[in-house]
Specification:
Length: about 260
């Protein structure tokens, strides 16, 4: 990993990535709760909130929408991704190159690795190529580190999440995006295993404001560095309110009660 604190991806040492690659990864079903969320422009608007340190999108959405927002948002190019229609062993197609992402103006790259998949070797080699090209452009690299496949489908066991964070460090990621392992204690171990690689929590499916903020608070208290979140922001009718609260918890060290009170002000 390289120092990334001075890059646009990071604010005061921490990170809040607004993920919006769900149209590919999950399909239109994720937009049903709030139909307006299918419009990428709405999410780019949301990403102009000062708490958001980057918006993570696939190539097509970046090409179509980023040029109008280049002065207002930080682009994280999510290089690989696969539709939910794929029924094989977990894998992810590399849909754009680092060179093309840099040409479009990306400030960081994102890459999924499914450790434990039968395709892990090939994915790690693709990650190597993306990582080493990103270094030529001084772009921070975020690994969506998701152990998955064979006996491991969607595993959030503490030992598995700690391994996911360690794998991100070992392969050179600057930020490891991992699922919440269930407790602050388990997150502490995860953060320790990641060494200098920043650890951020993956948002997950939509929960209540309090439940969500409490998991984020536990991550921060465990030494984590923030969040990469999609549904828990843009599946809310008022994404600004939860971003106001997240800004308090992630960047101001506020309690959940204080953050909620501030957001309601
Ligand atoms: P969420 O906060 O909505 O979970 O988004 C984070 C993310 O990693 C997205 O970037 C991605 O589309 C999605 O989760 C993948 O989720 P999964 O593979 O677990 O279904």
């Amino acid at each position: 990993m390289i120092p990334i604190d001075d890059t646009p991806l990071v604010r005061d040492g921490n990170v809040l990535i607004l993920a919006y690659d769900h149209g590919l990864e999950h399909g239109p079903v994720d937009f049903e709760a709030v139909p307006e969320s299918a419009d990428p422009e709405r999410i780019f608007e949301t990403a102009t909130h000062p708490a958001v340190t980057s918006i993570a999108v696939q190539k097509g959405v970046a090409e179509a929408y980023y040029p109008s927002y280049a002065d207002d948002v930080t682009l994280l190019a999510k290089l690989n991704g696969t539709s939910n229609l794929w029924m094989g062993e977990p894998d992810s197609a590399v849909n754009w190159s680092v060179d093309y992402a840099a040409e479009l103006g990306a400030d960081a790259i994102g890459f999924t690795l499914y450790g434990g998949s039968n395709n892990e070797i090939e994915m790690a080699e693709e990650f190597r190529d993306a990582h080493e090209t990103a270094r030529e452009y001084d772009l921070p690299v975020v690994m969506w580190s998701y152990p998955r496949g064979q006996g491991l489908k969607n595993d959030t066991k503490p030992g598995t999440i700690a391994y996911a964070a360690r794998e991100a460090l070992e392969l050179g990621a600057d930020v490891a995006k991992v699922k919440y392992p269930g407790s602050k204690e388990a997150m502490e171990t995860t953060v320790r295993m990641a060494g200098p690689t920043k650890v951020v929590m993956s948002g997950g499916s939509k929960t209540t404001d309090r439940e969500f903020l409490e998991s984020v608070k536990a991550v921060m208290d465990a030494g984590g560095n923030g969040l990469a979140v999609g549904r828990n922001v843009w599946q809310r009718e008022n994404p600004t309110r939860i971003l106001d609260a997240l800004e308090q918890v992630i960047f101001e060290g506020a309690s959940v009660d204080a953050a909620l009170a501030e957001a309601d002000d």
